[in-house]
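Task: encode each sequence below as C-alpha cells.

Item 1
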Amino acid sequence: MLLSHRGSKRFSQAALQGFSSQDHWVAITGEGSPLTGPGVVYTVAQERSPVHTASHTGAILRLAQLAVALGSPPWDAELARLPDAIGAAVSLRPQVVEAVDRLNLTRVVHFVGGGPAYATALEGALKLREAAYLSTEGHELESILHGPLISLDAEDSVVVMAQPGATLERTGELTAALHEIGATTVAVGASATSLSETTLQLETPEIDERLAPIVNAVPLQWLALEVSRRVGVDADSFRAVGRYAAAQSKFTL
C-alpha cells in the first residue's frame, strides 16, 4: 500500500517497480499522477501548495473506504457521515482564529494525542512546521507524561486531541497538569468541551475515534494557515528560497 500526494517521488515509483506484478500493490495518489496500473486509486486534484491538506484528507478517506471494501469494520455505517462532519470542521475557522490569538508563537507549539489521535497530533505538528516554519513537537499522550512534560513552562502552548474513548480520562489529567504549570491549552475533538473551561475548545462532530483523525485534521490545517498569515509566511512556498532552496538542491525526493 503506497500513499503519494503527487506520485512523482523517485522512491515511491521505485518501490512499485520492485514488484514483479501490478497485482501486488495499491497506490493512493492525486489526480494526474504519473502512477499507472489497476491498483491506482485517485483522491483529489493536485494542490498548488506542497503542504497538501485536501490531498491528505482524501488519502486517509480512501484508506477507510478500502477497509470497508475488504471487510466489515464496526464503524462501517459511520463512513457516510464523514462529509457532513468534515464540513462542520471546516466551519470552525473563526474559532481557530481565536485560538491563534492564545498561542505563544515564539515558543515550541506542542500537539498531543492518544490512541488514533496520536496520528492527528503528528499531522498537526507537521502542518504548522510546513506552513509557518515554527518549531513544533507531536507527542503520544502517555509518553509526554513520562518525561517531556517537565520541560514545558507557562510560556508554552499545547494543542490536545480530545476524543471520546479510552484516552479521554488521561487527556483530562494531562490538561489539568498543564494548567497547573500555566501553559496555554487548546482542545480539538468531539470531547473538547469536556475539558477545563480555561482550555479553548474546538469541538468537532462525534464520530468513531478510528475515523476521527480524518475530521480533526481539518481545524489543525486551518490553524497552520492562520498562523502562517499571523507570522507573515507564504504557506504555499515551502521555503524554496535562499539557503533553503540551496539545501533542497542537495537531495532529490
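Item 2
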Amino acid sequence: MASLDFNSLRERMVQEQLEARNIFDPRVLTAMRDIPRHYFVPDELRHLAYRDGPLPIGLEQTISQPFIVAYMTQCLQLSGHEMVLEIGTGSGYQTAILCQLANHVVSIERHGALAERAAEKLDALGINNVEIHEGDGSQGVPDMAPFDAILVSAAVPAIPNTLMAQLAENGRMVLPVGDSYNQYLERVSRTGNIWQIEQLIPVMFVLMIGRYGFTPRTTGSTQRL
C-alpha cells in the first residue's frame, strides 16, 4: 500500500471521474487535484481513496464520492471571497475543498468525534480559514449569518427555513432533499426577496438528524455519497 502513487491516482480521478462528467470549473478541478483525499479516509482504506464511490469513515458516516464533492462545490459558483457554511463536516474532505475556494468556512458536525478528527486533519494540512462547531446542522449557525454559500451534506425532508434565513443576498445553497429512498440535489438561489429552486440530480445521502431534519427512528441504512 505504501508504494501507491497517490498523485497519479488523484490525477486519474480528476480526468476520468470529474472532467469526463462535465466538472469544468478550473478552480474546483485544481482543488480536487491539490487536496489529498486519501488523507481523509481510514488507513486501511487508503488504497481505495480515489475510487469512484463513497467510503466509510465510522459512526455510520462516509466520505462522499469525488464526483459528488466536485459537483456540489461547482454548483456553489465560488469566486474566493465568500463566507461559506458547511452542514456535515464528516471526514473534513469537503471542508478542505471549500477552504481552498472560499475566504472562510464555518462547518458544523453532529458527531463530536468526527468534528475533532476533521479539525486535526485540516490543521495538520495547514488549513486555517475554517472553524468547526459541534451541533445540530439543521439549525445552521445563526450567530454567524449571513453566509454567501451553504453546502449541506445530509438529506433533509424539506429545505429548512432556518437555513434559507441564513443565506446572504445573491447567495447559493446546495443540498439533498428527500427521504431514505428518493432524494434530489437542489440549488437554492436568492436575489433580494426572490428565491429560485432548481432540482439538479438524483442522489442518496444519509439523513440529517436534527430539529428541522429527521428523528433517529425515521432513519434507515442510507449511504452517504
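Check on item 2: The longest strand covers residues 167-178. The first helix runs from residue 6 to 18.
End of task.
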